[in-house]
Specification:
about 110 residues, alpha+beta, 4-stranded antiparallel beta sheet, two-stranded antiparallel ribbon, globular
């Protein structure tokens, strides 16, 4: 069963709004980034990466409401988020995830 997701792609003046994220889980098997990187072992060492604001749509929530909720992400000792306007050339250095998002962002900015 697929889980509905919503994303907010915000583009202005040749830049895109992204979330710089730090994520650390107690175990690697509970961490989406450990799984994406085929990490082995028990410990999640923590990950710095960037994403487009978005996430799962909660029951009774519209896609618009979900996207806005994701823009106001909560911080904890194992999770921090920072909204940042960034130019396309900087996405590689920030570690945009998933990496196949970058070409689509390029097209959006070019058509702005």
């Amino acid at each position: 069963m697929s889980i509905p997701r919503a994303a907010a792609v915000v583009v202005d003046a040749g830049k895109v709004l992204i979330i710089k994220r730090y994520l650390r889980q107690n175990h690697a098997d509970a961490c989406v980034m450990c799984k994406a990187g085929d990490a082995t072992g028990q410990d999640c060492e923590g990950h710095h990466y960037a994403v487009i604001p978005g996430g799962h749509i909660e029951p009774g929530e519209t896609p618009d409401e979900a996207a806005l909720r994701e823009l106001a992400a909560a911080h904890s000792k194992n999770n921090s988020d920072e909204l940042v306007w960034t130019a396309l050339p900087d996405l590689d250095a920030l570690g945009i995830y998933p990496s196949d998002v970058q070409p689509n962002l390029s097209q959006l900015i070019a058509g702005e």
